[in-house]
């Protein structure tokens, strides 16, 4: 049975493994040992984990700054895709953000990732014409 809940420390090893599988080649600052402790400092209740029989099979990190919400690290084990796990994670993140007063939710998808763009479109997200810019403040 699939359950979506907040992250707990015993989840770490499996989530690290999951992210390495789903996000191969991610830069060091996106790796579990960096991203998870940072997320736990700010709105830890917005770090969601989907489990099957108690084992983590998916994640999503949500953020909220009082103006906009963001989704990050939406990941589902390849063995559990197309079973509603990703949709359940996103819907729960939306519910929690809405409860905080969030009125707009953003996310970024690599332009070449048509499958993920299609996934989010099916959940009601639209491609917005924007220029995405970033600046690393740490290494």
- Summed up, the domain count is 1
Quickly give the CATH architecture.
Answer: 3-Layer(aba) Sandwich
**Count of alpha and pi helical runs:** 4
Broad CATH class: Alpha Beta
Gap from first CA to last CA:
40 Å
- In the CATH hierarchy, the third-tier topology is known as Aminopeptidase
Q: How many whole angstroms does the radius of gyration measure?
A: 15 Å
Report the count of strand segments: 5
Low-confidence stretches: none
- On the 0-100 scale, what is the average pLDDT? 94
Arrangement of strands in the largest sheet: 1-2-3-4-5
CATH superfamily: Gcn5-related N-acetyltransferase (GNAT)
Along the chain, the helix and strand elements come as EHHEEEHEH
What is the percent of helical residues?
Answer: 25-40%
Strand content: 15-25%
Shape: globular
| Structural class designation | alpha+beta
Major sheet size, sense and barrel closure: 5 strands, mixed
SSE arrangement:
Layout: E1 2-6, H1 12-22, H2 32-41, E2 47-52, E3 55-64, E4 69-76, H3 85-99, E5 105-107, H4 114-122
Parallel strand pairs: 4-5
Antiparallel strand pairs: 1-2, 2-3, 3-4
Structural features:
alpha+beta, Aminopeptidase, 139 residues, 5 strands
What do you see in this structure?
The protein has 4 helices and 5 strands. By secondary structure, it is an alpha+beta fold. The chain has one domain (2-122): Aminopeptidase (3-Layer(aba) Sandwich). Strands 1-2-3-4-5 form a 5-stranded mixed beta sheet. A hairpin with a 4-residue loop joins strand 3 (55-64) and strand 4 (69-76). The protein is globular, with a radius of gyration of 15 Å. The model has no long low-confidence stretch (mean pLDDT 94).
């Amino acid at each position: 049975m699939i359950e979506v809940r907040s992250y707990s420390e015993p989840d770490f090893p499996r989530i690290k493994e999951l992210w390495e599988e789903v996000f191969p080649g991610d830069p060091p600052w996106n790796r579990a040992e960096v991203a998870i402790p940072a997320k736990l400092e700010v709105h830890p209740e917005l770090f969601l984990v989907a489990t099957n029989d108690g084992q983590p099979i998916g994640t999503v990190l949500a953020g909220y700054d009082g103006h906009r919400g963001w989704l990050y690290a939406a990941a589902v084990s390849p063995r559990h895709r197309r079973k509603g796990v990703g949709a359940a994670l996103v819907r729960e993140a939306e519910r929690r953000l809405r409860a905080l007063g969030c009125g707009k939710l953003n996310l970024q998808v690599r332009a070449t990732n048509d499958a993920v763009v299609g996934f989010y479109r099916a959940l009601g997200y639209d491609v917005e014409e924007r220029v995405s810019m970033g600046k690393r403040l740490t290494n």
